[in-house]
TrEMBL record:
<keyword id="KW-0175">Coiled coil</keyword>
<protein>
    <submittedName>
        <fullName>MYO5B protein</fullName>
    </submittedName>
</protein>
<feature type="coiled-coil region">
    <location>
        <begin position="3"/>
        <end position="103"/>
    </location>
</feature>
Amino acid sequence: PFLRLLEAQLQEQRREHEEEVEALKNEVDVMKEELEKQQQAFLQTLQLSPEAQVEFGLQQEITRLTNENLDLKELLEKLEKNEKKLKKQLKIYMKKVQDFEASQATVPAERRRHERNMQVAVQRKEKDFQGMLEYYKDDEPLLIRNLIT
């Protein structure tokens, strides 16, 4: 059983490794394609006149900035959607707090009566003790429990 478990773990790790290698190969392929496109664009710009090179560079920069702008707009929309959701949740929680506070406003009179009864009960139990206390070691847990209560 132990060897089977190890073999299964090894196969799982091998499978994960192969998937990771495949993903990295795909990423490398995409990067190679992008590099080739950039090299071709660079070679084309070298063949252009200086004015055309400047214009081509400006067009590429405009394209890059436009894509970056679209990404930022998408991020902004996500953040605004999240903000609306959080504001709705905040309103719900604020309503719950107000309802709870309103319900607590009606309870204090009953609670005060209950607390007075408890204080009276506590006062009756209190006594003045002076001196040392003798006890058996076996009775220690019981004594501690009684001291706490």
